[in-house]
């Protein structure tokens, strides 16, 4: 990320429903996209307060991975914590408030010293209608974005900050917090929005104005595409870092669809299961060969993608290859019933997951892919961390490599 030019001023956006205030853009914004995380490498200053961890586990209000799943961040009732994923390691803690003051949403930019916060919980540290832009070099907020309603999600790129409200998406320049685009959406209580991170100009996907519709903004071609992805309302989405592929799931939670984000064409459809489920997260592997899904059913699924993301321009909506349920398959996910595709119900001609990992039900889990080949990272709001490995040839149950409680005192790093 290029170092922003130092300047100090206050700016208001042209939209009456939001305003931006930039206190001071720090001249030393560092960002590294790989390598180990440390205070020196990532620009995190020592914590301001030197309070020992309490015996009581803190409340977790928010979890999210950074862009390459090399780290994850937990928004807690009095600050935030950052962890390395592969291998697991507690990296950094920041107690922003000595008393209770919750962070309900926190967004990282790779391993930068700049993060975005939104208050949350019974005693929010910041108002739920404000995005606070925090620089840990300075140990303070250097800007804020204010809105008339609750902020549902925040995405950060090296050049943009995207804020999602219940029925609007705002796109701001990072360097001066100038509003550059405002998008109307259908009711979007989950704050669904995905952006590309390695492509420039940006691609952005969010709900359209109709139920089950996706809106894809290509800021390079300056074109907008609307795709009817599902009959039911959208429940989850994920985009590859280069913006070429987009995965979506609906409120039914049975099917996941993969689209070419450049032209909106449907490339593949996979089946999580037959019963309704709430999809918590979708994640592409870095090479776009695999797609992982987590839901309230407690099983993590990994699907094989037959999409060549390097030649998407030549792909058509061809779904003739069929994969079926685990029982009638030959072990490689290829259905022995595919010859009867035109006769059997759609359930039997679906593409099923290659690998699975079963978790206790009752908590929300997010899934991402590890830095090592064929590894999956799973984090839960209950404090659980898992790192698993799947066999890309045989499939089946994944092998657990690591399991930790990231909230425990041993993993919680004493401030300083």
UniProtKB/TrEMBL annotation:
Originating organism: Linum tenue
GO cellular component, one term: phagophore assembly site membrane
Primary localization class, coarse: membrane
Pfam families per record: PROPPIN
Name used for this protein in its record: Autophagy-related protein 18a
Keyword Repeat recorded: yes
Entry's localization field: Preautophagosomal structure membrane
SUPFAM superfamilies from the UniProt entry: WD40 repeat-like
InterPro entries found in the cross-reference section: PROPPIN, WD40/YVTN_repeat-like_dom_sf, WD40_repeat_dom_sf, WD40_rpt
Topology of the protein relative to the lipid bilayer: Peripheral membrane protein
Sequence similarity: Belongs to the WD repeat PROPPIN family.
Alphabetical UniProt keywords: Repeat, WD repeat
SMART domains in the record: WD40
């Amino acid at each position: 990320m290029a170092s922003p030019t130092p300047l100090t001023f206050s700016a208001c956006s042209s939209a009456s429903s939001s305003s931006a205030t930039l206190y001071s853009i720090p001249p030393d914004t560092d960002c590294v996209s790989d390598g180990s995380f440390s205070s020196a490498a990532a620009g995190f200053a020592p914590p301001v307060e030197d309070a020992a961890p309490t015996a009581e586990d803190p409340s977790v209000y928010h979890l999210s991975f950074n862009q390459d799943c090399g780290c994850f961040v937990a928004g807690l009732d009095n600050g935030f914590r950052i962890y390395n994923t592969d291998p697991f390691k507690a990296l950094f803690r920041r107690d922003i408030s000595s008393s209770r003051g919750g962070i309900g949403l926190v967004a990282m930019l790779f391993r930068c010293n700049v993060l975005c916060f939104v208050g949350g919980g019974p005693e929010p540290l910041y108002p739920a209608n404000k995005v606070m832009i925090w620089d840990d070099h300075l140990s303070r907020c250097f800007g804020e974005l204010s809105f008339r309603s609750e902020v549902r999600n925040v995405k950060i790129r090296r050049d943009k900050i995207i804020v999602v409200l219940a029925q609007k998406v705002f796109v701001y320049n990072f360097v001066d917090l100038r509003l550059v685009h405002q998008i109307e959406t259908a009711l979007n209580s989950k704050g669904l929005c995905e952006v590309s991170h390695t492509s420039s100009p940006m691609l952005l996907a969010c709900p359209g104005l109709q139920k089950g519709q996706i809106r894809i903004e290509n800021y390079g071609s300056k074109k907008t595409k609307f795709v009817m992805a599902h009959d039911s309302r959208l429940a989850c989405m994920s985009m590859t870092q280069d913006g070429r592929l987009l995965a979506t799931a609906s409120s039914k939670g049975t099917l996941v669809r993969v689209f070419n984000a450049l032209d909106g064409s449907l490339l593949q459809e996979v089946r999580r299961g037959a019963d309704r489920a709430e999809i918590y997260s979708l994640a592409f592997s870095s090479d776009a060969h695999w797609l992982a899904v987590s839901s309230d059913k407690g099983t993590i699924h990994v699907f094989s993608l037959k999409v060549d993301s390097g030649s998407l321009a030549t792909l058509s909506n061809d779904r003739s290859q069929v994969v079926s349920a685990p029982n009638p398959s030959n072990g490689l996910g290829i259905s022995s019933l595919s010859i009867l595709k035109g006769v059997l119900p759609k359930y039997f001609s679906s593409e099923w997951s290659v690998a699975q990992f079963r978790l206790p039900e009752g908590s929300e889990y997010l899934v991402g892919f590890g830095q090592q080949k064929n590894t999956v990272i799973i984090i839960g709001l209950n404090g659980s961390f898992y790192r698993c490995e799947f066999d890309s040839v045989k499939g089946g149950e994944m092998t657990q490599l690591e399991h930790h409680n990231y909230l425990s005192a041993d993993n919680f790093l004493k401030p300083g």
